Amino acid sequence: MSAPDDSFTLYDLRVEVVATDRPMVCNHRAGDWFELVGENLRFPPGQSFPLYPLAAILPLLPAKQRVTHPNDWMTTDAEIACPDPYCGGRFRITRTGTSTWRHGEVTRVPLPPTP
User: Fold this and answer.
1) Number of domains in the chain
2) What is the pTM of this model?
3) Which of 5, 26, 45, 46 is paired with 69 by a 20 to 30 Å CA distance?
4) Which InterPro entries does the entry mention (predicted)?
């Protein structure tokens, strides 16, 4: 008897700073980016990212990693404004690919038995 399939798929994401017609006042530059693969943020070598914009973006990323209904705003809306009301920066979240994970590799909580 084989073990049940405990795999699931998440989107890999890229978050990129996008300039607008308003000046950016925070410590991010157009073209700065980071990636999210699974639970891990990956930054290019030597690049930093300001804390407050990151804090505003983080709650949205797990939802963007998952399959959503085509009519859901989480599917269609890709740009997030910087939380500083004086900053013109925006952050574009792009689904770049998928990664497959196994339940047993990301938690110690067992899956319930299947009937």
Assistant:
1) 1
2) 0.89
3) 5
4) CHP04076
